[in-house]
Structures are given as C-alpha cells and as structure tokens.
Amino acid sequence: MPNNYFQFKQFRIEQDKCGMKVTTDGCYFGASFIPYDSGRILDIGTGTGLLSLMAAQRTIIPIDAIEINTDAFEQAQTNFSISPWTNQFSIYHISLQEFQPYHPYDQIICNPPFFVKSQAGQSKNKNQALHADTLSMEDLAFHSSRLMSEKGELWVMYPEAEMQQFLEVAKNTGFIPHSRFILRNKKDGPVFREIIEFCKVQRNLKLSSDVYIKKSDGSYSESFIKTLKDFYLHL
C-alpha cells in the first residue's frame, strides 16, 4: 500500500485522499518541465499538487491549479498551504471546460487521465484520476488552446499509445510538438510514458531524449539522478 505522504527535499505531499498517488513518472514529468521566470502557469487536474509544487520550487511566478475531484482539491489545498510557497498558488474547484480565467497562460501542464472505455475499479477517486470520462483528449487540446497565450507551451504526459492519439488531436487543434521525453523503466525496456511540449508556433531547437529510469542492477540511472537530484530526498 502506498504511503499516506511523500517527502521531497523542500516540500511534502500528503496523498491519502487522492486516487492518483505520487509516481516516478509523475516526478520525472515535474522535473523535466522547465518553468518560465515570468508569466503564469496553469496546472490542469492538479491531483496532489505535485507538478505545481515542483514548478514552484524553481520559479516565483504565479501558479493556478484546477481540480474537479473534491477530495483531490482539498488535498492539493493542504499541500500548497504547508509548502514554502503558499502565496504563489491559486487553486480552483472546477472543471477545465468551465474554467474562465481573466488572463492567458504562458505554460500549461497536465498529467491527464488516459483510460478510455476500460473497466473502472471500485475507487471513485482513482477512476476519476485515471479514466478520461471527465477530460477527453479533444477537450484537453481545445481548452488548453483557448487558455494559452500565442507563444505559450502545453506540456502533457501519456502512455505511448495514447500519446500517438493525442498527437493527432493536438495537430487538429493547431499545436506543434516540440520537446519530447521518452521514458523506459530500463534501458532496453518498452516505452511506458511520453512527455511532449506543444506550441502554437514553430520553433527551431527541438529537444528529444530517450530516458531510462533504472540500470540493470536496480539503481537509478545517471540521467534520472541528474534530473531528480534537486527533488528526491535521498539522491
């Protein structure tokens, strides 16, 4: 059973109420996304608040987070309030489809639900965190475009097959893929997550990285340690 909390070097995540706990791929996503030093960030479906907190550790700009699930909303509120960056966050208990802010966002981050038409489990909170019933790919792309500044970025993480679907949806919405991280558990293992930065305008310097988390002996790879060393407590 997962712990009720996850301790990072500079903050702590309480996660007893959330369907989606802190995961290794979620942490890598939070560390690979590089927040701006100006503008405003939106975290869609913040859950525990993990991505927002990892961003706040590295920037002083305002971060807005939205969460439709009541328990997750309250959990993220708690995690923001006990962090060193309390005043940096605004959190809204609302769906993406209903969200009407007064300003555009320069960076949008989302670790979206991805199961489609699959059997749900017994936990309502976990179902909402994992299943795309309340946030389809089409809604994520459309409303991210609606809320994003013209030169902004959208960062998302999906399993490999779902990312291929989202690439087509994003293209139809006017997004262009830019930076890309391919995650494997081991060096020669299958791809289990992809992280892609999407833009509305073409950029020249594309970044593509094929990353594996653990070496054959079970220890973390050098690239993983380099990316997470400022966050993980024992790195």
Describe the structure.
The chain has 235 residues and is an alpha/beta fold. The protein has one domain: Vaccinia Virus protein VP39 (Rossmann fold, 3-Layer(aba) Sandwich), CATH 3.40.50.150. Helices cover 29% and strands 26% of the residues. The chain is built from seven helices and ten strands. An eight-stranded mixed β-sheet has the order 5-4-3-6-7-9-8-10. It has a two-stranded antiparallel ribbon with strand order 1-2. Strand 1 (5-7) and strand 2 (12-14) form a beta hairpin. The longest helix is centred in the last third of the chain and has 14 residues, at 160-173. The two termini are 23 Å apart.
Question: Strands, helices and their partners?
Answer:
Layout lengths: L4 E3 L4 E3 L9 H9 L8 E4 L5 H7 L6 E4 L3 H12 L7 E4 L12 E6 L13 H7 L6 H11 E11 L1 H14 L2 E11 L4 E9 L8 E7 L7 H7 L7
Parallel strand pairs: 3-4, 3-6, 4-5, 6-7, 8-10
Antiparallel strand pairs: 1-2, 7-9, 8-9
Helix pairs in contact: 1-2, 5-6
Which properties best describe this structure?
235 residues; alpha/beta; Rossmann fold; two-stranded antiparallel sheet
* Strand fraction: 25-35%
Largest sheet, in brief, is: 8 strands, mixed
The CA-CA distance between the termini, in Å, is 23 Å
User: With helices defined by DSSP (H or I, 4 residues minimum), what is the helix count?
Assistant: 7
As residue ranges, the low-confidence spans are 123-132
CATH topology: Rossmann fold
Gyration radius (Cα, Å) is 17 Å
CATH class: Alpha Beta
Name the structural class.
Answer: alpha/beta
Number of strands: 10
Query: Quick one: CATH superfamily?
Result: Vaccinia Virus protein VP39
For the biggest β-sheet, the strand order reads: 5-4-3-6-7-9-8-10
Mean pLDDT metric: 90
Instruction: Please state the second-level CATH architecture.
Output: 3-Layer(aba) Sandwich
